[in-house]
Predict the structure of Laccase.
Amino acid sequence: MAATVAFFFFAAILAAAAAGGGDAALVEHTFIVSQVRLNRLCNDTLVTVVNGQLPGPTIEVREGDSVVVHVINKSPHGLTIHWHGVKLQLNCWADGAGMITQCPIRPNNNFTYRFDIVEQEGTLWWHAHVASLRATIHGALIIRPRPGPSSYPFPKPEKEIPIVIGEWWEMDLVELDMRLRNGNLFDVPRAATINGQTGDLYNCSGAIKESNILNVEHGKTYLLRIVNAALNSEYYLKIAGHKFTVVGADANYVKPYTTDVITIAPGETVDALLVTDAHPGGRYYMIAMAYQPPKPAKQFPLFLSRGIVQYYDNNASPRKEEEALPNTPMAPEMPDQHDAVPSFYFYGNLTSLQPHPLPTIVDERLFYALDAGYFCREGGSSCQNVSNIVATINNVSFQLPETTPLLQAHYYNNMKSGIGTLPDGSPRMFNYSMSLAPTSKATSVRKLRYNTTVEIVFQSPVIADSYSNPMHLHGHDFFVLAQGFGKFDEKKDVKTYNLVDPPVRNTVHVPIYGWAAIRFVTKNPGVWYLHCHYGHHSSTGMAVALVVENGPTLDTTLPPPPADFPSCDNYISMLANE
Ligand SMILES: *[C@@H]1O[C@H](CO)[C@@H](O)[C@H](O)[C@H]1NC(C)=O
Ligand SMILES: *[C@@H]1O[C@H](CO)[C@@H](O)[C@H](O)[C@H]1NC(C)=O
Ligand SMILES: *[C@@H]1O[C@H](CO)[C@@H](O)[C@H](O)[C@H]1NC(C)=O
Ligand SMILES: *[C@@H]1O[C@H](CO)[C@@H](O)[C@H](O)[C@H]1NC(C)=O
Ligand SMILES: *[C@@H]1O[C@H](CO)[C@@H](O)[C@H](O)[C@H]1NC(C)=O
Ligand SMILES: *[C@@H]1O[C@H](CO)[C@@H](O)[C@H](O)[C@H]1NC(C)=O
Ligand SMILES: *[C@@H]1O[C@H](CO)[C@@H](O)[C@H](O)[C@H]1NC(C)=O
Ligand SMILES: *[C@@H]1O[C@H](CO)[C@@H](O)[C@H](O)[C@H]1NC(C)=O
Ligand SMILES: [Cu+2]
């Protein structure tokens, strides 16, 4: 108990200091996790959700606020909740990464998360972080500027509209995860969703209620807070007859960028203004469409979710006969589902609103090759009786520890011998096509001293059967310096780095056939998961845990864990059913 008190006291001091005292509030939520039957696609399906809702409740705060979330687990699954993108300074214990920072909360148990929102504004989100449960356990986390003279760096929107893109799975999500870990990487959802609804392209959901009608007034500005909560796909989002002005991504402001198509990969968020300047009598389809890699990648059905933006009459003067529009909504022309270029351009056009003082001397340079390989059940290298396909970084497929979360092992100086160090470079060449090669599994970490400037170049395969990789780092934002197609070439590509106003994000989209480079300073001690946000990549090992050591002073040292921190004996068995 003493430890808990000390910890909260300490956290409170930090929050007060950061907020300059005064107007910070405490925002409290209770999340009851349970299984409910939801009807989609003519079918009642049992899903695990928070407070009976899909998406779950939106957490709304102001910068500087403290958040308390009581999680009451009435579901049959052990689970954790991760506060995606929240920087959690000196509060790694609250990160909610299953078996990285904590044991799952057991069925019929509770756990309370406490954290502060400091120096971030915009849209983030929260989600379950065990197995694939995040497909239904997720919601938006909206951070508004604190009251006072500082406010949005753009015209105050008329209204804010969350747009949570997701997927509807009929398969049980824990079973999905088991299947992934047994090498079945190609399961797909039944439908794409916007705000939990499949939309009017699917039968049984044609009812108005389910079609995501956004009623807007003519001549106003709306702020769309867009989250990609899907497991499998990057999405293109368009609204017929309208453009977006992107003003933020991952709760960092960007220079206003006007575009007719938004690209959003799993884990990412985008804040975009929508000016309702189209014909006021019109109705306009909004479409979220899943990108998929071209052949020879295995092909899946096209996933589209559709909503309608419609204007209501704000006592406009009566329309003339010739201005009358047909009732059929106008449809946007979508990019080709295999075309990666609109995505590449979207990311390439994002810059930070304010220039940043960028650390120029890099202490650690890491090259992370994102790949896949065979894991031989029998071990050894002949690998006759294969086995599973697993995703890898630098030829290692990450495996979660089964009994002691890495943060606890690290904190109590008890990192077991089974925990290895991920190599800083790749053994494999990325410029030729080759069949899958054998690989190995390990719980691999990379230790970093406090206050180290780290640069990581991520490389997707440069072979025909490639894919993009949205790489997400917990507990830190980073600068995205550059991206490119092809194999990273240090001599040539370093010159393209944006060292003036690179976007600041928590997830970097590493393009298909290409690379991306990030830079950050380790200022937050703890164990921070770095992983691909595609479910089929993260569940099968495209991950590493970055262990950031304590700094020299008390205020650069991770405090002890909360007294009521969950424990676990066997993670795998907790997942399934207890
Ligand atoms: C209904 O959902 C279940 C899984 O929850 C699935 O097995 C079944 O095929 C679905 N039925 C239809 C008609 O889609
Ligand atoms: C969990 O919280 C609920 C509601 O507050 C309470 O009734 C229950 O006793 C708690 N269970 C545990 C194991 O703490
Ligand atoms: C919807 O259902 C109708 C009638 O059952 C059928 O004719 C039509 O093909 C279905 N449409 C889709 C998109 O499944
Ligand atoms: C920005 O987008 C435009 C097309 O909309 C494209 O021509 C341009 O190359 C992009 N810029 C970058 C740096 O990717
Ligand atoms: C591979 O497994 C099959 C049965 O699963 C067995 O019949 C065969 O002998 C095995 N081959 C090798 C090389 O181990
Ligand atoms: C692949 O890369 C290696 C080393 O960088 C180079 O020697 C070789 O010529 C390249 N092959 C192709 C097909 O580009
Ligand atoms: C990858 O790891 C496996 C298993 O340790 C090993 O057999 C293989 O040679 C490695 N591949 C490369 C390219 O180093
Ligand atoms: C962090 O490192 C930089 C550059 O090496 C140094 O100037 C700075 O004083 C260090 N800060 C802390 C808090 O150690
Ligand atoms: Cu990936």
Notes: Residues 384-385 surround 2-acetamido-2-deoxy-beta-D-glucopyranose (ligand 5) (CB under 6 Å). The first helix runs from residue 2 to 19.
